[in-house]
Amino acid sequence: MALAFDEYGRPFIIIKEQEQKSRLRGLDAQKSNISAAKAVARILRTSLGPKGMDKMLQSPDGDITITNDGATILEQMDVDNQIAKLMVELSRSQDYEIGDGTTGVVVLAGALLEQAERLLERGIHPIRVAEGYETASRIAVEHLERIANKFEFGATNLEPLIQTCMTTLSSKIVNRCKRSLAEIAVKAVLAVADLERKDVNLDLIKVEGKVGGKLEDTELIYGIVVDKDMSHPQMPKQIEDAQIAILTCPFEPPKPKTKHKVDIDTVEKFQTLRKQEQQYFDDMVQKCKDVGATLVICQWGFDDEANHLLMHRNLPAVRWVGGVELELIAIATGGRIVPRFQELTPEKLGKAGLVREKSFGTTKDRMLYIEHCANSRAVTIFIRGGNKMIIEETKRSIHDALCVARNLIRNNSIVYGGGSAEISCSLAVEAAADRHPGVEQYAIRAFGDALEYIPMALAENSGLQPIETLSAVKSQQIKDNYPHFGIDCNDTGTNDMREQNVFETLIGKQQQILLATQVVKMILKIDDVISPSDY
């Protein structure tokens, strides 16, 4: 390293090794990319399955998150490498599309890249590897269709949906309450589902949490829970057969939109102004009373004078309610959001059988329950837990269970879990490899080997001997020609996933294979890494 000066006398440093540095190209670039993606997959591998470990993530401002949800782990990680960011995007895509399987899809992509690296070292061109993987993914997806079973469920037969949600929750921190949480998730989805169109709007399900109590106290409310209380402590805490006025206009005198100035030089003028303000408040409250409202929910606040007047006129009110919550309340109660007092009519009032304020523990925390609504197509899952981290992880777990129930309503086909589907697909892909002449058969066979990484990771995370366990299950599947044998992670004594009631949605499993293959093909086709300094 040497110090030099330019023609203006400004110093700069000459690094001797600068000429020796060169950007990565060809096989070196592909190996570097594969190494970066494998590093991300290795982090998530230990979180796979019901016995998977949790990760503790610390944000730059010191907040702690404990989770084993793949999408959340990668979302919170500070990833700089561009290829590693592709793996983060992969997990996010699985989360957006399916809602579950975010860890498995990254582990599978890592396994496919590991197998691809061996093929590249043997001199096989990356394009041929990518084409072989594409062929193998089609074979695997078609095989999943053949081994899938259809679940019939209805309003009286929820067990198939509950069992599938329990499989999703069994890998989470909340697995000791998986039965009750699965039932809550299924009932919530069915409450908002349109079974004729096979459509579910998850925006109608509000997930709210409050620290305190225990996980078993989590409940489903056919209505809306708002983290607010009555505006005045002397207002009634319980209102039956409530007629609700939902307002986005404030309880205050109108303000001119132009610049204005009021000059008051006598006591009489001040008293006149004060009386006018009181008249405004009085008229607003009277309009609400005239249309028959027994409860006012307002998006904005109001001052003490308006609050006192509302209490004096026996009109309970709630203030500072958010816009999203107002929309849910309007949907649940069948009311209309009113932007001006002049537009308030009896037809625009929402109806609820019971509105009550509930306090928690020894704190002053209170929440408003709006129940027995005219339209129960908006529900709330209210989570209790010992601390904030448990609440947040339970919310993520409930989200996965809701997505699985929604996917089953859209497509009621399921495959069996515990790695049984991957082993069966691996056998089908290996059998198909012999029918493909040329170099692609190596890639197809490698794809089959990569599928076995999922059951191996499940066995490893459950404290079993991975290779021995996988070999035993694989031979069992071949011998009995029965695709439902998987890894006995919970040590129940049987490898039959049908007996263990371990189910996964077919579309979730197919999406995993297709997404992982797409991203791996993209990574394999990158043979040059160009940074801004190379321009």
UniProtKB/TrEMBL annotation:
What is one Pfam family matched by this protein?
Cpn60_TCP1
Q: Which domain of life is it from?
A: Eukaryota
Gene3D superfamilies, alphabetized: GroEL, GroEL-like equatorial domain, TCP-1-like chaperonin intermediate domain
User: Where does the protein end up?
Assistant: Cytoplasm, Cytoskeleton, Microtubule organizing center, Centrosome
Q: Name one GO cellular component term.
A: chaperonin-containing T-complex
Where are the membrane-spanning stretches? none
For this protein, the record's CDD domains field holds: TCP1_epsilon
What InterPro entries does the record tag this protein with?
Answer: Chap_CCT_epsi, Chaperone_TCP-1, Chaperonin_TCP-1_CS, Cpn60/GroEL/TCP-1, GroEL-like_apical_dom_sf, GROEL-like_equatorial_sf, TCP-1-like_intermed_sf, TCP-1_chaperonin
| GO MF annotations, alphabetized | ATP binding; ATP hydrolysis activity; ATP-dependent protein folding chaperone; unfolded protein binding
Q: Which family does it belong to?
A: Belongs to the TCP-1 chaperonin family.
Report quaternary structure and partners.
Component of the chaperonin-containing T-complex (TRiC), a hexadecamer composed of two identical back-to-back stacked rings enclosing a protein folding chamber. Each ring is made up of eight different subunits: TCP1/CCT1, CCT2, CCT3, CCT4, CCT5, CCT6A/CCT6, CCT7, CCT8. Interacts with PACRG. Interacts with DNAAF4. Interacts with DLEC1. Interacts with SPMAP2. Heterooligomeric complex of about 850 to 900 kDa that forms two stacked rings, 12 to 16 nm in diameter.
User: What does this protein do, in the record's words?
Assistant: Molecular chaperone; assists the folding of proteins upon ATP hydrolysis. Known to play a role, in vitro, in the folding of actin and tubulin.
Record-linked PANTHER family: CHAPERONIN
Protein name (database record) = T-complex protein 1 subunit epsilon
| Provenance organism | Crotalaria pallida (Smooth rattlebox)
